[in-house]
Amino acid sequence: MQFIALTSIGIENLLADELKQLGVQIGKQSVGSVVFEADLPLAQKVCLSTRFATRILMKIAEKENVKNKTDLYNLARYQAWGEWLTPTTTFAIDFSGTNTELKNTQFSSLVIKDAIVDYFQDLYETRPDVDKQNAQVRIAARYHQNKLDLYIDYSGTGLSQRGYRQGQGRAPIKEHLAAALIQRSGWLNDVSQPLFDPCCGSGTLLIEAAGMANNEAPGLKKEQFAFERLPNFNESQYLEVREELISQESPKKLYLIGQDIDGFVLSKAQNNARAAGVEHLIKFSKGDAANLKPVSKRAGVVLSNLPYGERMGGTAELINLYRNMGIAFKKYYADWYLALLSSDEALSKLLKIVRHKRYKFKNGPIDCVLNTYILDEKQIIESTHSTELNYEDSTAFANRLKKNKQGLKNWLKQHAVTTYRLYDADIPQYNVAVDIYNDHAVIYEYAAPKDVNEEVSNKRLQDIIYLTGKQLDIPAEKIVVKVRKKQKGDSQYRTIAQQDQSMVVTEYGAKFKVNLFDYLDTGLFLDHRLARQYIQQNSQDKRFLNLFAYTGTASVQAAIGGAKSITTVDMSKTYINWGKENFELNNIQNPRYRFFQADCLSWLEQAQGEYDLIFLDPPTFSNSKRMTDAFDVQRDHIKLFETTKNILSEDGVLFFSNNKRGFKMDEEALTALGLKAKNISDKTLSPDFKRNKNIHNSWLITRV
User: Fold this and answer.
1) CA 345 vs CA 355, 407, 448, 476: distances in Å
2) Residue 498 burial (C-beta neighbours within 10 Å; 0-12, 13-18, 19+)
3) Residues 154, 54: Cα–Cα separation, whole Å
4) Which residue intervals of 297-393 are DSSP H helices?
5) CA dist 330 to 325, 352, 355, Å?
6) Residue 82 carries which DSSP code?
7) 178-181 contacts: CB < 8 A, separation 24 or more?
8) CB 62 within 8 A of CB 54
């Protein structure tokens, strides 16, 4: 019989070698698959033994020139389905591929289903039933360039699931990929040497290594294979295959070491090792890979699926991790062999070790590379010289951080400020902003010009992160890195993670919730600090309106200032709820303090009543689907004032602000509305923003 073994990209060669060792005849090898021929007992041995395949399919038919429904039906109708099904067997069909006539895979599946049902109806006057969820037999139809291949799922899905994994960490690795990494690491050439995983997570690499070293067939622990449900299944023959594989096991004394910083995940690793029957072979301990120490006097192999940005860890933590691991490897792991999986070559370069070989893989949808390194004496001497930062202008960046902090020292102390901007692209080559939130730092990387080499840009960002932590004595886990660039519509509101980490900061007697991790903006616009102070100082007994309110921080200051009534309006439900949380933080309760989730422009057109103080801070541009029309602050500011004037009391003040560089107030149109404006931009810039006078524009607008 002909079979096809499926696997992940990058593992095909290893799978082909494994199949040859099992004694099958190898056929065509394609991306993610290997064709082979075997009798049924040998195919069952493959299902039990393979560590690299994810599924085994048995081919039952193939035909060229299948162009339409009739061709498809005839091919399926005249197969010997009685070999694979009975009238009482439930089945399901998985069809892939289309052409101009067979446009819908679901329709093509129904054609094959009808053919199978008709086959049994003619012979037995009864038919098997379809069960898409729990079918006893699954049929796979693969259609490409008018050629149809029909398969029976011989193994069942999930060959890579060995049955021992009862829990996993945040960045799990599939068992068949783990086996491939172990094979490529070279450790199996001498399993008496130590194998160390410094980021072991739920222990998959080490558990797989134990099974491979002891020649244990992973399928022996599987409850049932799909072939056991076929009518021609020979149980006694299958038991002989199992006994043969059990007899070939060769337990060995192994030195397997696993370490992880997460104690909860380590407990899962121990449970998984226990379920796999290899708990006694692996020593697990809690430890930080960014602070590695020696684990053995004998040299061995370090093998690990290192954390990377798509799955876990902030950029600063990752840079710190890779830098420190590279230093520790050269200091403590002379003569060891390293095999490290990563999805980010820029991070791998931070190890400052010359690569020996590289192998490309897929970890789920993520492209990854297994880099190998030989830490011989020559390698350590050569790479040690490259561990120090090539500072270029980075010393100037570090000095500027120090100078800026010293310059703000008295102001910070005098006003009890704990959230402030420390650096804002002061040096052109280091095009970032650095904000301080209590004991955390947020680094905003402005999008680099197209003519700046990406490698140079990455190197500078790495230096910035490293030096920010070092200069300000902030640990990597408290440094947050974000990329800030021009946004369209409401994309500035998109989440960039989902860590749900928030903290409380204080400002002029108010408390605010900020979230440094989950959104591009943190919940507090630092450059509006003095604007909020003005609102606090001028709200006594006033009717206050906060439009485009974001997280309602100006409303909180109005409440603290004694506002008679407060209306807070924003389009985002998230930010309206956030504003309510800020009110709760400050124990503010008043039935005249109200929140509205609405498009501010539409809300203004229907608004009634009067307000004595209005804070109007619209976006520079917005084409959000939730807004009726696109908004441009330069083009539309007069129209905005016209509608706002309708609810501004006779002696009321409109505090208008925006962040558009080069914004020009239309004075003539403003006068025609019976309004006048006083530019107070310079008075709303606190010392930490004096370096960038274009950060925002502010006016006080009143009636003439």
Assistant:
1) 11, 39, 19, 20
2) exposed
3) 12
4) 315-332, 345-349, 377-384
5) 9, 9, 13
6) G
7) 178/204, 178/205, 178/208, 178/305, 179/51, 179/52, 179/208, 179/212, 180/8, 180/10, 180/11, 180/14, 180/52, 180/361, 181/205, 181/303, 181/305, 181/339, 181/341, 181/361, 181/370
8) no
**pLDDT reading at 681 higher than 70:** yes
CA–CA separation, 556 and 506 (whole Å):
12
SS (H, E, C) 368-427: EEEEEEECCHHHHHHHHCCCCCCCCCHHHHHHHHHHHHHHHHHHHHHCCCCEEEEEECCC
What is this structure's pTM?
Answer: 0.74
Supply the pLDDT for residue 495.
Answer: 37
pLDDT for the residue numbered 313 = 40
pLDDT value of residue 492: 36
Question: Please, what is the Cα angle at 329 between 324 and 330, to 5 degrees?
Answer: 105
Q: How confident is the model at residue 295 (pLDDT cuts 50, 70, 90)?
A: very high
Asked if residue 435 lies in contact with residue 420, where contact means CB atoms within 8 angstroms, the answer is yes
Return d(Cα 424, Cα 431) in angstroms, integer: 8
Q: Nearest to residue 174, comparing CAs of 198, 205, 143, 145?
A: 205
- Round to whole Å and give the CA distance between 17 and 33: 13
Strands 503-507 and 479-484: unpaired
| pLDDT value of position 380 | 76
Contact yes or no for 368/332 (Cβ under 8 A): no
Residue identified by tokens 């109007």 is: 616
pLDDT in tens, 576-587: 999 999 999 999
| Rounded Cα distance, 444 and 427, in Å | 14
What one-letter code names the amino acid at 605?
Answer: E
How many residues make up the chain in this entry?
704
Task: Give the whole-angstrom CA distance, residue 69 versus residue 73.
Answer: 6
- CA dist., res. 447 & res. 486, Å (int): 9
The amino acid sitting at 552 is G
**Around Cβ 528, how many Cβ atoms within 10 Å?**
25
The whole-angstrom separation of Cα 366 and Cα 655 is: 49
Q: Which sign, positive or negative, has the C-alpha torsion 535, 541, 542, 543?
A: positive
- Terminus-to-terminus CA distance in the chain, angstroms? 93
Closest CA to 559 of 532, 533, 588: 588
Helix (H) or strand (E) holding 118: helix 105-124
**Which tokens sit at 433?**
């902003």
Could you give the angle at which helices 553-560 and 529-537 cross, rounded to 10 degrees? 30
Question: 3-state class of 576 per DSSP?
Answer: helix
Residue-wise pLDDT tens digits, 442-493: 999 887 766 667 777 777 888 888 899 989 999 888 998 887 544 443 333 3
- 73-117 pLDDT, tens digit per residue, is 999 999 999 999 999 999 999 999 999 899 999 999 999 999 999
What is the pLDDT, as a whole number, of residue 389? 45
For 326, counting Cβ atoms within 10 Å of its Cβ (0-12 exposed, 13-18 middle, 19+ buried), the class is buried
Find all residues with CB under 8 Å of 154, minimum gap 6, and list them: 3, 43, 47, 56, 57, 58, 225, 226, 227
Nearest CA among 46, 45, 57, 7 for reference residue 29: 7
Q: Are 79 and 113 in contact (CB under 8 A)?
A: no
